[in-house]
């Protein structure tokens, strides 16, 4: 009788074990996401936010530093909301600036300056922000956009604001003259393209007749961005190298200032303007999650 009872207990135990094996395991639930990080909010030690599918807790006071940041202020608390963080590259096309980051850089921009216009212009100069390491690519994009921001008041101005200057940008010594009119070649676009010879050179490079129709630069966002990329990638201005070469070859942000407006700003001529450009650059590299590097001033 005892043997029968023991056999029954063993069978019951085996059945229970079998049932335990086939029951589905309970998975740990993902943490809830804290309120989303905001660039306009001041956070104190212990405050927790969410960003890109992860929770982050501030170790001390912080404002405008997007998680994970570079100063060590944010402590990673892990994934939240059951989502997977996005890949390191924020845009599937390979461009290192996402639309959300672009909007964060230019919260008050003129609607003319679209992110789509910038993306459409990239094909004209494929080496831009696509050369070197991820850090170099992000620094170049930040440097370009920082100078653009300075030139346009944060992508607010499409055309030069001082209309009294307009007639001055026609160099009549050029054999092609100024077919659109003497006052037609004023500053336009992200880098404020000006002078008839620059409109001709940019138009020739891009396959667009900007000498006869300079107004395209203030009417077509992609054309406007292309003229800025033309200057950035091909012109040295008063400097000794193109801004593109300055960034990809490690010469630093200061050399991009020299190539764009060095004759008026560098060498102590206008330190406030130089500092304005540097401040933009420092803010933009932070948004892109990288560091500014050396040689920031000219």
Automatic annotation (TrEMBL):
Chitin-binding type-3 domain segment(s): 34-77
Q: Which domain of life is it from?
A: Bacteria
Q: Which SMART domains match?
A: ChtBD3
Does the record bear Hydrolase in its keywords?
yes
* UniProt keywords, alphabetically: Disulfide bond, Hydrolase, Plant defense, Signal
* Coiled coil feature spans: none
Alphabetical GO biological process terms: carbohydrate metabolic process; cell wall macromolecule catabolic process; chitin catabolic process; defense response to fungus
User: One GO CC annotation, please?
Assistant: extracellular region
Secretion signal span:
1-30
Cysteine pairs forming cystine bridges in this chain are 170-178, 266-298
Q: Does the keyword Disulfide bond apply?
A: yes
Annotated region Disordered: where?
71-90
Q: Name one GO molecular function term.
A: chitinase activity
UniProt-recorded name of the protein: Chitinase
Q: What is the native source organism of this protein?
A: Streptomyces taklimakanensis
């Amino acid at each position: 009788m005892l043997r029968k009872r023991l056999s029954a207990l063993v069978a019951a135990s085996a059945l229970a074990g079998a049932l335990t094996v086939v029951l589905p395991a309970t998975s740990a639930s993902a943490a809830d996401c804290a309120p989303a990080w905001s660039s306009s909010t001041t956070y104190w030690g212990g405050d927790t936010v969410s960003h890109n599918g992860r929770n982050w807790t501030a170790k001390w006071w912080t404002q405008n530093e997007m998680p994970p940041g570079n100063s060590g202020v944010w402590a990673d608390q892990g994934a939240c909301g059951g989502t997977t963080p996005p890949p390191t590259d924020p845009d599937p096309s390979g461009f290192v600036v996402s639309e959300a980051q672009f909007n964060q850089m230019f919260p008050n921009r003129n609607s003319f300056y679209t992110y789509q216009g910038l993306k459409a212009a990239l094909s004209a100069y494929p080496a831009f922000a696509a050369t070197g390491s991820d850090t170099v690519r992000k620094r170049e994009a930040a440097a370009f956009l920082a100078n653009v921001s300075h030139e346009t008041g944060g992508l607010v101005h499409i055309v030069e604001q001082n209309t009294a200057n307009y007639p001055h940008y026609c160099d009549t010594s050029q054999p092609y003259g100024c077919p659109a009119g003497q006052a037609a070649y004023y500053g336009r676009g992200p880098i404020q393209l000006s002078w008839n010879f620059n409109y001709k050179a940019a138009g020739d490079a891009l396959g667009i007749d900007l000498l006869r129709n300079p107004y395209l630069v203030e009417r077509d966002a992609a054309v406007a961005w292309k003229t800025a990329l033309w200057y950035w990638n091909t012109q040295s201005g008063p400097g000794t190298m193109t801004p593109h070469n300055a960034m990809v070859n490690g010469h630093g942000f200061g050399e991009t200032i020299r190539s764009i407006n060095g004759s008026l700003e560098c060498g102590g001529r206008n330190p406030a303007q130089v500092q304005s450009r540097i401040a933009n650059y420092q803010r933009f590299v932070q948004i892109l999650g990288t560091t500014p590097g050396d040689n920031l001033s000219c």
